[in-house]
Amino acid sequence: MTALTDAPAQTLPRQLVAVVFAATCVIVGLIWDISWHMSIGRDTFWTPAHLVIYTGGAVAGLVSGYEVLRRSFWSATPPTDGVTVWRVFNGPFGGWLAIWGAVAMLTSAPFDDWWHNAYGLDVKIISPPHALLALGFIAILSGAVALAAAAQSRHAGTPERSAAPWLVAYASGLVLTIIAIFCTEFTDRPLMHRSLFYVVSAIAFPFALVAAGRSTRLRYPATASAAVYTLIMCAQVWILPAFAATPRLGPIRQMITHMVPLNFPLLLIVPAFVIDVVLQRTASRSAWQRAALVGTLFVVTLALVQWPFANFLMSDASRTALFRTDNFPYMMPADWPVVTGTFHVEPLQGTVRGFGLALVLGILSARLGLARGEWLRTVQR
């Protein structure tokens, strides 16, 4: 016991710290960029948000590239771990993901600039250059998770002396955040009483939350990851409107004077806690049994908390500095449901059928999340 107490704290690899920093830059820059588009419009490629995004890509690529070169050519002894490419270049698996993500991001930059010059303002979040950029984002974020998981595995004997499990949860929370952002068009407030909202949520979120729940050596890992997502999205809701902004592109349909934030976070932290409890109490069950329980409870729990919360978000009572549901982009027409506070409606039969589909997809998503989480727990290089 004394030896364990006196043992020095495990030092995190510098590459891991740098890639996690880069992943944070990617998320901050992405949120800032979307808000910039909703508030000001795209006046130049060299916006501050773009600089933050590409700083993250550059840091991830350069640091990981240096690590590959160091291990391959400048190390005193040949590396015995890592992933070798072309029988020469050796580096951690997460580092390779970060390199590929950086290459995708930097490739998308001139493509995105050309796209805007040719077609103007983005109509949707996912355009061809943004799709390539998104792949780069996901690769860098996945690299951060893999590097943190490898550090966690190497320090498994003394987890209390390492911050690696917390970094796994943090990086997993960043992954959950970017998934939520890319699902925004299908999870907007007017859709929260339609089955489409729950179908898309069942596809996207059980996978991320269950993977976090199985990959992180914390007591409530999925809850911790959901808390990261919640804090990030709350922070942007509260911080961005403090800065002045004026639209510079037409058509201007909403008169705004400040930066428009993204939506208030979904209440994913509630089903995340349920997922943690279920995973703790079903360790002896088969993977498919656990997935069935987790996927079903995710959909049911999310519906129980998000459906009534949506009523509040669509009311005038939520148009305050705390929830900021008056976050209307300058180009949004005044008669859109999100502005008028009305839900998209569907027949009851469609809702029942949609929830049935959401249950099936939630189970499949949870099963994939279990597989990914179990794999991440074994990553050591």
Q: How would you describe the overall organization of this protein?
A:
It is a single chain. The protein has helices spanning 2-6, 14-39, 48-74, 93-119, 128-154, 164-182, 195-215, 221-239, 269-281, 287-313, 337-340, 348-378, and strands spanning 83-85, 89-91. Strands 1-2 form a two-stranded antiparallel ribbon. It has twelve helices and two strands, in the order αααββααααααααα.
Which key features would you list for this structure?
single chain; 381 residues; mainly alpha; 2 domains; two-stranded antiparallel ribbon; 65% helix
What general outline do the C-alpha atoms trace?
Answer: globular
**Beta-strand fraction estimate:** under 5%
Sketch the major β-sheet. 2 strands, antiparallel
Order of strands across the widest beta sheet? 1-2
**How many separate domains?**
2
Average pLDDT reading: 87
Order of helices and strands: HHHEEHHHHHHHHH
Q: Distance N terminus to C terminus?
A: 29 Å
Number of strands: 2
- Output the structural class: mainly alpha
Unreliable spans: 1-9
Query: Helix amount, in percent?
Result: 55-70%
* Count of DSSP H/I helices: 12
Task: State Rg.
Answer: 22 Å
Summarize the helices and strands and which ones pair or pack.
Elements: H1 2-6, H2 14-39, H3 48-74, E1 83-85, E2 89-91, H4 93-119, H5 128-154, H6 164-182, H7 195-215, H8 221-239, H9 269-281, H10 287-313, H11 337-340, H12 348-378
